[in-house]
Amino acid sequence: MAIRSYALKIALQKLQKTTQKINLHEFSAKHLFPNSFNAKYSAALNKMTILNSTPVCVQCRLSSYIISTDKTLDEGKPSISGIEDSKDAETICRILIDQHNPFHVMEGALQLNGINITADIVYQVLLRLRLRNASKVALGFFVWAKEQVGYHHSVSAYNVMIDMLGKVRQFDVAWQLIIEMGQIFPQVGVKSFSILIRRYAAAGMATQAIRAFDDMESFLERDPSSEDFKMLLDTLCKYGFSRLATELFNKRKAQFTPDTKTYNILIYGWCKRNKSAIARNLLNEMINQGCEPSVVTYNVLLEDICGKNKLLESRFCQMKKAAENLLVEMKSRGFLPDVMTYSILMHAYGRALKAEECFRLLNEMKENCCSPNVVTYTCVIKCLCILGRMNEAYILLDEMVQDGVYPSAITYNCFLKVFGGRNDGDKALELYKKMQEAPLTSKPTNQTYHILLRMFCRLDRMDVVFDIWNDMHQKGNGPDLDSYTLLIHSLIEKAKWREACLYFVQMIEKGLLPQTVTFETLYKGLIQSDQLRSWRRLKNKLADESKKFKEEFEGYHFKPYQR
């Protein structure tokens, strides 16, 4: 609620700036759609995940792979457990989502449904709200549940709430919850801090992440361990702060003895920044310090070689030769390629549209008793789809299922993108229905919905668009910022001003702050279409909403922020 209040406040500020910036009496085409604006519009949309043509992020998987090789490090990972089946949690979530201001009727609505609040139910509700990006509703429910007689939040509930607050950069409130946990529980766990540190790093606040790590000692009532330090280094490297991570490593390696995994994390960080020379220096330092490289080390270096966009034939040959040399070095140290090794190579070959090379590696895997996984198959299927070899892609999909590997949503998205490029909406809908009936791992994701929404908006089949939108809402996959941005811009292009304003307000009510380009596009479109009265009504609506919620959560220190 308070998150929405501040989103509304920032929205109003942007509306006022937009109104002041453009003279209402001057509407030349050049003024309304200057080249700089078009470039800005394109840049903003290019940042959205729906435009990412890579179906498999091997680098992201590799980062998780580095950590998952050690069970002790898994305990410090900032991941949150999955959702479990719970009819009560689904009912509560539906009630909360359907009511914009749950404080007035929340208790009565829940009691009428005969639901008793327990720690497990609250945790499951928060997880579902997190998937729906409903942070303001989640905080309202979190505070309300805490005030119920005989109820106490679990550590897991606090962790989910800290994660959601960090995502919207309300770090002061997140710290308040951590302090609150310290007063309730014997000690705050490492997981709570790992979540906070990850959110700091994701927000580009690396210094604050390190301070949070240093402050952790007073809450844990013990000195940070080497595993805790690896968690910090991994988080910094994952979000592009490899230089800072290396400086921290050099300063504190006397306190935290480095091992192979520590060096793997740093090597990964520099490889991610395309600094191969520094990564190699770290490898040499690692060997000199008596830390033996592992198969993970070589997979990180292999990803650095293969992960660059070397699509030209000459560059592809150079990449292939360098990869083969690294594999020779890897085998000379007694390490055999694993499934991640093959996945990295297939991803590179698939990006270069070398389907035959992909098939060769797939056969080699099976000969070496290395079972392909969903990532491996998806790399090959994506390559075949791009080349238009759909029959072979379908055959490989069947082979994949026969081998006991279930396709993921990312696998099916490869087919959907081809259908989108061909404007074949019927086949796309047919596959979409199959995905809905498929096992959980194959269910549509946000990227699936984005692909479909963009396709049917382009085809001007708005009835299908809104059906998909409702499905996305009911399944708990959003809508998120990208979904709203895509839909609102499509409605503006079609001059559907009422619907555009409706979803614009709905977006802000959910606590999602629209991008500047969305404000400007909607404003200019309304003015150009002689809809000044609609603009004023929209502005007044946001002002009323801001006043309505401004006094909520007085005990929490919320800060408005801009993107």
Please state the CA-atom Rg, rounded to the nearest Å: 25 Å
Uncertain runs are: 1-6, 17-57, 67-80
Mean pLDDT: 80
Structural class: mainly alpha
**What is the fourth-level CATH superfamily of one domain?**
Tetratricopeptide repeat domain
Roughly what fraction of the amino acids lie in strands?
Answer: under 5%
Tally the helices: what do you get? 31
CATH class of one domain: Mainly Alpha
Instruction: State the distance separating the first and last CA atoms.
Output: 19 Å
Explain this structure:
Helices cover 70% and strands 0% of the residues. It is mostly helical and 563 residues long. Among the domains are: 70-208, Alpha Horseshoe (Serine Threonine Protein Phosphatase 5, Tetratricopeptide repeat); 223-291, no CATH class; 294-402. The longest helix has 20 residues, at 2-21. The radius of gyration is 25 Å and the shape is globular. Mean pLDDT is 80; it is low at 1-6, 17-57 and 67-80.
List the topology elements.
Layout: H1 2-21, H2 29-32, H3 35-46, H4 58-68, H5 71-74, H6 87-98, H7 106-112, H8 119-131, H9 135-146, H10 155-167, H11 171-184, H12 190-202, H13 206-220, H14 226-238, H15 242-252, H16 260-272, H17 276-288, H18 295-306, H19 313-332, H20 339-351, H21 355-367, H22 374-386, H23 390-402, H24 409-421, H25 425-437, H26 446-458, H27 462-475, H28 481-493, H29 497-509, H30 516-528, H31 532-549
Helix pairs in contact: 1-30, 1-31, 4-16, 4-18, 6-8, 8-9, 8-10, 9-10, 10-11, 10-12, 12-13, 12-14, 13-14, 14-15, 14-16, 16-17, 16-18, 17-18, 18-19, 18-20, 20-21, 20-22, 21-22, 22-23, 22-24, 24-25, 24-26, 26-27, 26-28, 28-29, 28-30, 29-31
